[in-house]
Design brief:
Shape: globular
Strand content: 15-25%
Distance between the termini: 53 Å
Strand order of the largest sheet: 1-2-3-4-5-6-7
Largest sheet: 7 strands, mixed
Helix content: 25-40%
Number of helices: 10
Oligomer: single chain
Radius of gyration: 20 Å
Length: about 300
């Protein structure tokens, strides 16, 4: 896995999860995310070794397994590595069953406890908050990117490169699934922030390219949010359960759903329902033991 240079000291290692790399002149570097598992972590190590680099810092954008699953093996390979995340995401990494609980609503059954939802627990060395941060004399801007998760953050380097995790989705993923969100209102805010972030390059957690102009993709993401909110509002002209509503959304969007993605897509549907409830555009109630949602 070779490091692709973007600008100055900033580059990335492409993969199923793109990993940011900021190199220092002394041969050390900072990583942004670590991939899904030990194999991904070892491949990152191989890429760094090929470039003569050793990681000194690792910042996780958020606590989904495909972004921190390689932390443990990197920590074992580089005992001096210091790892950081936001306070909220650090809690999910430390208590690794929380993701399954939030997606399922109860103790996750064994088939859910695979590497898509379940990485080994990990204790970060420190937490980090949005704003300015300094590591070894270099200044970075930590970006607040809530919406996909409760405390997602990104990192912008002094080279003008912004690593934004899953703060925004590429067109391929928008076409495949309901956006995996926990907070739609926060996601609108994140899109506004990214649209006005003065970076020359944007590295997404999952994309086949680095974006120099993020504005068209911001518009596409915003349009997707508007579309789903409008679709769900229209569907709720007739009362529906969450499961019934989700099924109709999947059919209308021609989403080929499997068991794993059912939970992430259902999380997105629930996020839109919460958004519409909080805007008083829909309401809910129990009838015959079923919870229905409908346009108020």
């Amino acid at each position: 896995m070779d490091i692709i240079k973007i600008n100055g000291h900033s580059g990335y290692i492409p993969g199923n999860t793109n990993v940011g790399v900021y190199s220092y002149k002394n041969g050390y570097c900072m990583l942004v995310d670590s991939g899904i598992n030990n194999t991904a972590g070892r491949r990152i190590s191989e890429g760094l070794a090929g470039a003569g680099l050793k990681p000194k810092y690792l910042m996780n954008t958020h606590a989904h397994t495909d972004h921190y699953g390689g932390n443990r093996v990197l920590k074992e390979l580089y005992p001096g590595l210091s790892c950081y995340a936001s306070e909220q995401e650090a809690a999910f990494m430390r208590m690794n069953e929380l993701e399954g609980y939030t997606l399922y609503g109860a103790h996750p059954y064994k088939r859910m406890r695979d590497e898509m939802f379940y990485a080994r627990e990990f204790q970060v060395d420190g937490t980090i908050s949005p704003g300015s941060a300094e590591f070894d004399g270099k200044k970075f801007e930590v970006l607040p990117l809530r919406g996909h998760t409760v405390g997602q953050i990104g990192l912008m380097t002094d080279d003008g490169v912004a690593y934004v995790g899953d703060g925004i989705f590429d067109g391929k993923r928008l076409d495949m699934y309901v956006p995996f969100l926990c907070d739609v209102e926060a996601q609108y805010g994140t899109l506004d922030l990214l649209e006005h972030t003065e970076a020359g390059w944007f590295v997404l957690g999952h994309a086949d390219e680095v974006y120099e102009d993020i504005r068209p993709l911001v518009k596409r993401n915003r349009d997707s949010l508007d579309e789903y909110a409008g679709m769900i509002l229209e569907l709720l002209d007739q009362p529906k359960t969450l499961g019934g509503l989700a099924a109709e959304v999947f059919i209308l969007k021609d989403i080929d759903i499997d068991l794993k993605h059912y939970y992430t897509c259902m999380a997105g549907v629930k996020a839109f329902v919460s958004y519409l409830l909080d805007k008083n555009e829909i309401t809910n109630g129990v009838q015959d033991g079923r919870l229905y949602f409908y346009r108020g």
